[in-house]
């Protein structure tokens, strides 16, 4: 019963965080590890549990989806799908021991990029970074999608930072394409996880329901929050603490 309460609480708070600023994986992944799932299964299950939120956000932002630069929407989606499925496939051939060693570094990377993402975007906008070519753009989208399929932590803010580095300037369009690609990457990776039997269905069901409830509450709260920067740094603190715990373990 205590494990169920842990999953409900983590999923609910993660749903709120994802609706307001992102970073819910910093809670769902360690919660799944805490209740006894192997790290690879916990990672796959956390990705699956985040799907309803990603799909709902993609639908909500459907009118804002707008690409910039040399890659059209179809090319970006195809590239993201290929990267996501390869990242998911890479996880399938990673042992629990190896992934346990990688987890602290992946959490560290996600935490740093989550915290520095807005600053990176501001610096790039100030300097008027030009549009990247099709080769660089394709490589960047593929690399981030590969990461997202392998480890979902901080995917949204990493995508935003990537678009900023590629020369995107329309923040609404960036948010739209970010949510669409997050959904695409998670869907294709999850298909691979399901086929390999990596999803812990009972834990996923509990977390998906509580995440959906948290997402609804978070969407209402987001309209009244004026200091999202404080919330973001709170999430960074959670990510840093989680990273430290996994390094110590």
From TrEMBL:
The chain crosses the membrane at residues 31-51, 72-93, 99-121, 153-171, 180-201, 230-248. It comes from the Bacteria. This is Probable membrane transporter protein. GO terms for cellular component: plasma membrane. Belongs to the 4-toluene sulfonate uptake permease (TSUP) (TC 2.A.102) family. It is found in: Cell membrane. Coiled coil: none annotated. It is a multi-pass membrane protein. Pfam families: TauE (PF01925). Keywords: Cell membrane, Membrane, Transmembrane, Transmembrane helix, Transport. It comes from Litorivita pollutaquae. Signal peptide: none annotated.
């Amino acid at each position: 019963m205590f494990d169920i309460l842990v999953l409900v609480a983590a999923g609910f708070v993660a749903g709120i965080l994802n609706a307001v600023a992102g970073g819910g994986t910093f809670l769902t992944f360690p919660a799944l590890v805490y209740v006894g799932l192997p790290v690879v299964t916990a990672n796959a299950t956390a990705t699956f549990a985040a799907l309803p939120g990603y799909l709902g956000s993609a639908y909500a932002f459907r009118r804002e989806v707008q690409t910039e630069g040399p890659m059209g929407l179809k090319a970006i989606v195809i590239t993201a799908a290929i990267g996501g499925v390869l990242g998911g496939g890479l996880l399938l051939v990673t042992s629990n021991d190896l992934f346990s060693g990688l987890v602290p570094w992946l959490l560290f990377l996600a935490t740093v990029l989550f915290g520095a993402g807005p600053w990176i975007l501001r610096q790039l906008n100030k300097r008027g970074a030009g549009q990247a070519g099709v080769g660089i753009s394709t490589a960047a989208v593929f690399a981030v999608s590969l990461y997202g399929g392998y480890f979902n932590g901080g995917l949204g803010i990493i995508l935003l930072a990537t678009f900023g580095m590629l020369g995107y300037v329309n923040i609404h369009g960036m948010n739209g394409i970010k949510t669409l690609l997050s959904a695409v990457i998670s869907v294709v990776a999850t298909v691979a996880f399901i086929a390999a039997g990596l999803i812990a269905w009972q834990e996923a069901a509990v977390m998906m329901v509580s995440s959906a409830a948290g997402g609804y509450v978070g969407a209402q709260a987001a309209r009244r929050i004026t200091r999202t920067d404080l919330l973001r740094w709170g999430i960074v603190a959670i990510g840093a603490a989680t990273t430290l715990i996994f390094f110590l373990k």
